[in-house]
Each structure stands twice: as structure tokens, then as C-alpha cells.
């Protein structure tokens, strides 16, 4: 392989999914995995199969569907973990098992309550077992950057002797600094003779805001795989941001001299999809994908960019795919045009799903002059979710006035094809609709989160709402899209409630709740 080619290992669906409040179902994980494949990542870490039947099912589904990237599954150094990971990726075109165990004394003593000798034995046996099931095995000494480097090198050499093909060095708690990371890896190369024959990888967390800088330091020290997550999501402050790393290597290629296989024009869409499905908003000033990343406020900057873009821009917005807000469909567009536009966006929609998408498209196109690619993305994400939920909002009436409390009446279609109605007088129109829905379906969840965002700019912009509710200790999230914020809110609330009901019912029956985080 080209010695300057950097492998992109995406952990959005594993480390990213460990972020508080994120709970993706298999369908959503598949959608993200397909988009990651379009983005051109080399490895998709699809999950941690031992942790729940839902995680296992998602890793298996991704393994069966995804073509191109390697599909990796995470496992601790336990027999059952490795068997679950191996079974889950068995049908992948290019499977990988990723095993990890801590090498820092602080973890060995307090978390594992074990000894260095035991860690060596476990690592050796686990890599050997994983190699029996899969030719591609990655080994990670967890918390390596706070560990004794001699001991970590010894464990890594053992893993290599047992057949590990990638050694990944995690900065698990985001503690290291760029110059320290470079020195660490250079010393690790010196202490681990076999390291030059395998791929060295880095996995950096952002607790001190250094994840991307530390990842770059790792690449400069010889690593040729970098682990990252879309929008930088992940444990605590998150992982290195995938889009920042891609654009760093792309924009400064002449100086850094390393390449990736990323299709940069897919970045914006990938970021929006992950944000939408995880419910994690993107801060406006976020590098590469934030709303303001290519906006110029000051007159001097605007003047400069109008005269010559490069005066104040080091990247072109079109390089990261931000041109996709162009008009794609009009109010007279037919079903075929919609199907084609969705295919161009990477969504294969047919049958009943296409009928539903078309009905919703027409409703929106009637109210909105231009239906853009970003509108369609929002719509499809919303409609795809419908398949896994039970209730849907049929209609609502709300009387709102600043002189008396708003009163709402709603009708909700039930999973068995019936209809229930409910009414409530609330503190505001949204509150009245939410509580009327509670009255209709007979549940009283706690509202944990409610967000409203405009999908695009403009007066007739679609509003996209995200709702998270909690019922009997189980959370459920949902999204809604409409030109009418109240309708979008109602749609999102019904979906969130449906998801929470489903999860609460499973938990009450003692069955595994899907998408529980590890
Ligand atoms: O941060 C970490 O140490 C991890 C490992 C499982 C690679 O996520
Ligand atoms: Zn991590």
C-alpha cells in the first residue's frame, strides 16, 4: 500500500454511540453506515456486539449490507466477547475484530482489579482467539498514553506475535499533548520491533480540545490509521472529529504529504445525517460543518471574499458538499422525479416508503416554493423513522391566544389501525399539543429535550424538531419536519413517545432494549 495513505477508521457507531442520550436503532445505524461508505472511510466500527442483542443485530446487519469498507466489531479480552464480535461480522465482505484491554496501572489496579501479568495473559489469549476467527485483528492497549510505555510495548509485541494486524494507541481520557504523543509513538516504535510490520493507529479523545492535534501528531510519528467520529461525537468530550481530520489532511496536503480515500463532497451530508439521527446539534462555529464555517460577517471579510475568495477562505464550501442546498424539486415534480432525486442523495426508497415520502413531499411542496436537497434529507430521515414506531399524528387543532391558555385537540393513529383523540389546555401551544397527545395515548412521559431548528434559510424554511421523552426509565427520541413548527413538534413528540413506549414495554417484559449503550 502507498506509504502515505492514511486509513480512516470511523467509530461514530461505536464510540460515538456511547455519547449520553444517543440511542440509534439498526435502521438508523445502517443508514449512517451506508453514508460512511459513500464518504469513503476505510473502516466502519459498527458496534460492541456483546453489550446487547440490539448491538449485535446492528453489527450483523451492517456486515451483511455494506460493501467496500472493513466492518469492525469491538470486544474485550473475554472469550464470549470475541465470539460475539466474530459471529456479528462473519458475513462482512471484509471483517475485523477489535480487541482491547487496559495497560495503565490506574486501570489495571482500580478498574480491572488485576495485575500486569494477568493483562498480558488475557491480551495474548484474546488476540489468538480473535485470529482463529478472523484474519484482520486490531489490538488496543486502553489508556496507553497514561501507561508505562515499556509494559505497553511488551503487550503490543505479544499481540503482534499472536497475529494482530493493527495496533491502535488510545488516548482514552484525552490527556496527552501533541509533542508528547509524537515522542510516545517514536519510543513505542523503538521498543516494539514488530510495530513496523503492522499498521499503527491512533485514537484520541477531546477532553482538552486536542484530539485532532494529537491525531495529527500521531500521523506525523508514523501512524497510518486514524480513528475518529463524525461531528466529533463520543465518550465525554468526544473523539477526534472525522471531518476535521479529512479536511486538515486535504487542505494541507502539500505540507503534510498524506492522503485519505475520503470523498470530501460527502462531508456536509454525513455530518447532517449523524446530527439528525443522534439528536446532537452541531455548534454554529464548528470547524468544517458548522453553520458559520463558511460565513463571513465582518464587512472587511465580505468585501475581501467578493473580490477574491481566498482572501479569507482556506477551503471552498463546495469541497465539503455545502452546495447541496440548490433547488432540486418543484411543486409539480412527480413521483419519478422524487425517486430520482432521492437516489441522487443516496436513498433507495421504493414501495410503501416511496408513497409515504411522496405524500409528505407534496404536502411540503404545496407550502414551500423550493424543495431543496437538505429538505429532502430531513424528510426522508423523518419518514424512515416511522417504520420503527407505533403511533402517528393524524391531525391537531390548537387555539392559541395571548389572552387565554391555549387549548389543543389531537387525533393519533394507533399501531393496530385505530384512532384515539385527546384534548388539553396547556401553558403554550406546544405544551397543549404534547399533553393532548399524552391524553390520547394514555401515557405521561417526562419531556427531556425539545429543539427546533430551521432546515435551510429563508422565510418558508422547513422547521425540524427533535424531542426526547422518558417513560418508566426508558428514553425515546423522535423528529418531525414541517413548514409548521407546531405540526413538526407534534410529529416528533408522537415518534419519541412511541419509541419510549416500545422500549419501556420491552424492559418491563425483561427483554433486551434495543440500542442500549455499552
Ligand atoms: O478510548 C478508548 O480507549 C477506546 C478503546 C476501546 C479503543 O475507545
Ligand atoms: Zn474511545
**Would you count the extended β strands for me?**
16
Q: Give the DSSP E fraction (strand runs of 2 or more residues).
A: 15-25%
CATH homology-level superfamily of the largest domain: Aldolase class I
Give me the Rg, rounded: 24 Å
Helix content: 40-55%
Ligands and ions found: 3-methyl-2-oxobutanoic acid, zinc ion
CATH topology of the largest domain: TIM Barrel
Domain tally: 3
The overall pLDDT, averaged over residues, is: 92
Which CATH first-tier class of the largest domain would you pick?
Answer: Alpha Beta
Tally of contiguous helical segments: 17
Shape summary: globular
Query: Strand arrangement, largest sheet?
Result: 1-2-3-4-5-6-7-8
Biggest sheet, open or closed, and with what strands and sense?
8 strands, parallel, barrel
Report, as a whole number of angstroms, the end-to-end distance. 34 Å
Structural class: alpha/beta
> What CATH architecture of the largest domain would you give?
Alpha-Beta Barrel
Which residues sit in consecutive blocks of at least 5 with pLDDT less than 50?
A: none
